[in-house]
Amino acid sequence: MYKNLFDCHIHSDNSHDGHTSVEDICRRAVEMGLAGLAITDHAECQGYLDLVYQPRLLKSVADAAAAAEKFKNQLTVIRGFELGQPLQDTDLALELLGLCDYDFIIGSLHGLGGKTKEDFEYWAFMEDPNHNAHEKLVDYYNQLIDLAHWGNFDVMGHITYPVRHVKIDFSRYMEQIDQLLRILIQDGRGIEINTSGLRQGVGMTMPHLDLVRYYRQLGGEIITIGSDAHYLEHVGHSVDVGMDMLAAAGFRYVTYYQNRKPHFIKVE
Ligand SMILES: [Zn+2]
Ligand SMILES: [Zn+2]
Questions:
Q1: Residue 136: pLDDT band by 50, 70, 90 thresholds?
Q2: How many CA atoms, within 13 angstroms, populate the side-chain half-sphere of residue 259?
């Protein structure tokens, strides 16, 4: 059992697809012996969900702040959010970023925009892996590179996200992944190990160990671990596996954020 377990990617019922109150999440985390967690509710900038995110984010951050006070002797509670597709509406993204005092921002890409307005999981090509998948994956990594250049986040979310829906031969995208990781490292940003793939049938974290090792070899130091829980029973799920991976990849420290600043704690 690790003593410094942080789950830095959790959705509460302030996310459109979340199901649990922040307080229940924190209670569960204390029971599990976690040292801390980040509430990172969704704001999807392309707007296809037709939701207004401002009140959700305000409530999420207020809930997290209240929980930080309530659980202050037991748990570090981080006020974050997951900024989805900011380049698809940068005005909205910047407005959301200025809305509250956040501790931590995950920058993510869940859909490519343009013709399709939906998440990867609804894409027809995912049902037929030979149809256009390569082209869209090239597009996906180009968009991640653009997102890294844009910045305005702390850690990039699940950098192998389409693996949830399509088999990927990563050797075909290594040039882009190399470029992406170098930009993030140079600009003082990080990546996460998203453990949700381990419970969703993908059977691997996002990214998987080879890429975590590669990031380390390039000089990457900032890495958070998150379950991406949307249900209470997934809080803290496989965060210890993420710690095993960090140790295996040669990391001596794991990261969490407060006030938009990375804190490094020993993998122990
Ligand atoms: Zn996400
Ligand atoms: Zn998420």
A1: confident
A2: 0
